[in-house]
Structures are given as C-alpha cells and as structure tokens.
Amino acid sequence: MRNRPMQVARLGLTPVKGMAHVALPEVELTRGGPLHDRVFCVVEADTGRVLRTVENDIAMACEAVWTPPVLTIRAPGGDASGEVSEGALIAGQYWDRELKLNVIEGPWAGLLSRHFGRPVLLCRVAGPERAIWAGSVSLVTTSSLAEVARRTGCGHDDGARFRPTIVVDTGEAPAFVEDTWVGSRLRIGAAVVTVEERLPRCAVVDRRPAAGGHDVAVLRALAADRRDGNEIVFGVSGEVEQLARVALADPVRLLG
C-alpha cells in the first residue's frame, strides 16, 4: 500500500519559555521562528539567570496566552493579566550566553515568585538573541512518536512532551524518518523550512506535559540507539526560509 502524503498533525508554542506548550490550529512562521514563541522568559531576580526548565519543571504547570499587548499567565496559585510594559534593561544569562533582557513591569513577577518559591522576574529578550537551545523551528514525526510509545509502553503521545513547533504525520514511514531530512528543505503549507540538525534532548522530555514532575523514562528508552556523541537526539530543528502561516492538515513535502 502506498504511504499517504505527509501533513501537519500538531502545531504548538509557548509565549513564556518553559511554560505549558499549547496546541494551536495555526502558527505564523517568521524569520525568527513561530510568531509569539518564547517571547518572554523567567529570570532569577538575584542572579539574572534564565530559569532552565529541566531544573524548574513546575513552570510547565503554568500556561501563557500572548495577544499583544495583553499577556495572561495562568498558574496553579492564580492568574495574572495585563498590558505589557517594558522596564529596566538588565544583563541575563542563558546557559553560556549573555542576553539583554527588558524587565516586564506588572502583576506577573509576584505570581511567578510565589509559584517558584523565590524572587523571579518576567523578562523579554531585547535584540536578536533568543533564549532557545537549537534552531528556531523544531519538528517531530508521528512515526517516531509511535516508536517512543512502543518502547515506553505509555500509549499514544501527541508530541507535547517534546515541545515541537510542528508534528508531521508521516503515516507508515519508518521511525526516525526525520533524520533523513537533515540538510534538506521541507515545504510545509506555503512555508519552507531548512532542516539543519537532529535535535539534542534533555530530561525535560521525561516530565509530564502541562504539569511537570517525572512520569516517563523517555531518555532511557532512546539511549541505546539515538546517540550523537554525548547527546541523545530526537526530532530535528531548522530555520525558516520562506515565511508563511501554517495550519493543521497543511501538506508537507520534502524538497530535497
């Protein structure tokens, strides 16, 4: 039986780095990646260090909605909403990179400080740098998600734990088919994405989506055959070559 054409199965992003990865019916792919993705970050007030999700997975229990100029954050302890006003410019640290950050004034810092149990700031990255680990767009496939489900015995996974921009429905294609896309271009609806590398993963993928806390040993399930040097890889990342709005069920085609 001929494999059906590939198409978009899921789209998602989070306006605040580390918070719940929200599924959306469409996203606009810009030169810097999906519009409104990881616009804001949470920063330790004392050190200027951007909170790492792997060390602060309770961030996943918060959900952010960004409809400029209004930002709403829903946390287990309450909600905060209002128009964003940028304040002081500070130096922040994201892993080994320095970032220029604008402190966001308003009700969010108080809510988040209570949630994380220490003083934090809500900030917006100023300038071209972004608080991201790899390429601006990430992709996983339904074939690979099915293989992870088989290995872990945890049933269907819509991909949210991997926090991808796009889940591609690859039908009956083999697991990890996306590895073969590296160095190629994908047409996704009217957009074109250049696939640059296999995506290194950290222990965030072992956490419960939209909640935090360990639930599935995904990294252990991938460790035997999904290594690239010292990294465990799953999915791919890349950059946007042709800008466009992408929607669920849009066709996906390998351009070579």
Order of helices and strands: EEEEEEEEEEHEEHEEEHEEEE
**What is the 3D shape?**
globular
User: According to CATH, what is the class of the largest domain?
Assistant: Mainly Beta
Amino-to-carboxy terminus distance: 24 Å
Number of strands: 19
| Order of neighbouring strands in the sheet with most strands | 1-13-12-17-15-14-19
CATH architecture of the largest domain: Beta Barrel
What is the beta-strand fraction? 35-45%
Residue windows where pLDDT falls under 50 for at least 5 positions? none
Supply the helix-strand structural class.
mainly beta
The percent of residues in helical segments reads: under 10%
Overview of the structural elements:
This is MOSC domain-containing protein. Residues 78-255 form the MOSC domain. GO terms for molecular function: catalytic activity; molybdenum ion binding; pyridoxal phosphate binding. With 256 residues, the protein is mostly beta strands. It folds into 2 domains: 6-11 and 134-254, PK beta-barrel domain-like (M1 Pyruvate Kinase, Domain 3); 39-126, no CATH class. It is 10% helix and 44% strand. The chain contains 3 helices and 19 strands. It has helices at residues 108-116, 142-152, 218-222; strands spanning 6-13, 22-24, 26-30, 33-34, 40-44, 63-67, 70-75, 78-83, 85-94, 97-105, 120-126, 137-141, 166-169, 185-188, 191-201, 227-228, 231-242, 244-247, 251-254. It has a 7-stranded mixed β-barrel with strand order 1-13-12-17-15-14-19. The chain is globular and about 50 Å long. The two termini are 24 Å apart.
